Each structure stands twice: as structure tokens, then as C-alpha cells.
Amino acid sequence: MTQTVAPPTRRIHEIDAVRGFALAGILLANIGFFADPGYATGSGAMPITEGPVAALVSTLVLTKFYVIFSFLFGYSFTLQMRSWGDKVKGRMLRRCLGLFALGVAQGFLLWIGDILTLYAALGLILLAMRNVRPRTAVITGSAIIGVLTVVWVALAGLTLLDPAAGTAAAVDHAAVARAETLVTGSPLDFLTYQFETYPTLAAFVWLGQGPMAMALFLFGMAAGKSRLFEERERWAHLVPRVQLVGFGVGLPAAVFFTWSNTASGSWQLVGLAVNDIASLLLSAAYVVTLLQLVRRFPAVGAVLSNPGRVAASNYIGQSVLMCLVFTGYGLALGGKLAPVAVMGVAVLIYAVLAALSAWWLRDHRYGPIEYALRALTNLR
What we know:
InterPro entries: Bact_Transport_Assoc, DUF418
Radius of gyration: 21 Å
Oligomer: single chain
Keywords: Membrane, Transmembrane, Transmembrane helix
Order of helices and strands: HHHHHHHHHHHHHH
Largest sheet: none
Organism: Nonomuraea mangrovi
Protein name: DUF418 domain-containing protein
Pfam families: DUF418
């Protein structure tokens, strides 16, 4: 990657479309936690963990779309740097503060798997590294992923030496039942569940997704400094190769990851190591294929770009609507829907939010959450 001199900042339609696509994948990945509250206890199972629906979600969706979203965070940071100029430090600090506060509120009130607090913390590291060259950012991100992969493989080796370490934990049926009762009980019951579960799960999110997210932040920053989306001719000739490697290698590796989740001990850890690479390859293939599709069929980009333009509002909106369907805030359908029905709810939620996004953007430049973040960021 070669850093280029940037012209004045403009809205990049392709980034909005990819972000809207990533939101759809994140919705599919997250909805299982709402559909079966017992899963979040660490001993239950989502209704989409068995059967063909489970295989498709695990193989094609899980961990792939937060990779894309993290990459876009880093890319968007370069656009903000161009816009903010010498005010980048103060504005980024305030933006991260706003994201952290929003993440904490969502974690306790709506979605225990919220990632915004992690993004806020890693955003401060990205700010500190804002002057590194694209090549250095790519090397650093690659090193993080390499170390993470080695750690998983080493842990897998240790479980082979200690067979007891690979024994699957017994399902705590009482904990699963209590979780479902709280989530589908009254709003106060649901809040009790949130306050009990969120702090522990937040720690798992930070440890489990933090290193990979930081690596993708750096990749995105490198791509943004190189203006990768703005100058399509620089990478268009690589699309067939990206698709060949992404689908040809990443897809079988993702299938292995899905299979490893049904195993125990060392195979699960090997699956995590493989998935670190599979997620990158498959996500890259998704993105270049989507960009080709958007270029050929502009209507696809139009549908996806509206949710992508107001991504923060849609991210919170997804949590609100999932709570209204599955928790005591609304219909309390947690643990009651079949896997296919759960996926149908996800499609309906995305369609509703896409329609609301298009309606809102007729008269507004930003979404409601985006307005609040901009007000704090710019102090006006």
C-alpha cells in the first residue's frame, strides 16, 4: 500500500454499502443470543447451534462480519482525520468517550454482547498510531493475527498433554432455565439478567475479539491512507484472485471451524486458530464480490447504503427491536422460536430498519445516534 495525498473529504457510496452489508451479518450473528438466553450463561445452546441453519450461520456469518465492521472503523478514521485536520486528537478522544458511554448503556439495557466499549478503547490506540505508514500498519496488524493464531495452536497442544483440560463442561440446566425466565419475564427481570451477565461477557468480548479488532483497525487505516475504495482501478484486477483464495481457501477453513465447534478440547482451539485466517479470507471475498455487485446493479448499493449511512443508529436499533421480540420488554419469545423463524425475524428487522433509514435520510443528513456523537465530537 502506498499512501496518497487526499483531496477534500466526500461521502463514499461504496463504504456505506459495505457497512450496510456488515450490519446485516452482525444482526444474523447476534440474534441467536436473544433467541436463546441460556447461551449467554456459557452452558446453554442457541436454537441455531444444530442443524442446517446452524451450519450456515456458523460457517458463513459468525466472526466474518465484525471483521468487516472493524476494518471499516479503521478506514473511516482516516476520512475523519482528513476532515478534522489539526483537531483530530481532541475530537477522536471525545468520540471514543461517546462510543464508550453508548456501549455501556447498551450493554446494561439492551445487548450484553455490545462491542462499542471495545471499539472506544481500541480507538485510542488507533489515535496514538495515526501517523504510522500504511506498510507499518499492515505489518503490525499481521503480527497481531500471527501471534493470536500461535497462541490458539499452543493452547491446543497443551490440551493434548492434559486430557482433562479438553473435557467439555456439563450443561448447567438450572442456570439456563433461570436465564430464560429472567429474559422473558418482566422488564425488571430482564434488567436483572443484564446487570448480572454483562460485566462478565464484556470481559470475554474484550479478550476474545480485541486483538483481531485491533489488527483490522490497522488494516483499515492502511487502506484508508492508501485510498483503496476511492481508487478502484488500483485493485480491480485483483478481484478474481481475492475471490479464488477467499472462497477456495477461506470457505473450507470456515467449514472446519464449524465442525470444530462440535468437537471438544484441542480441536476447538485449532478451529479458532484456523478461523482467524478463514474470517479474513472469506470477509475479503465477500467485500470484493459485493463491490462488483454494487457496480453492476446500483439498486443493490442503494438499498444497502441507507442503513450504512446511519450505521450507529441501526446497530442500536437492531438491539431495540430484538429486545422487543425476544425479551420481557416486548413479546418475550426467547427460547420459543425455531431456527428458521429466528432467521426470518432477522430478515424482517433488517427490512424495517432499512426502510426507516431511507425515510429518515430524506430530511436528515445523519442518523439520531450520529447527530448525538457528532455534537459531542465537534462540541457543537
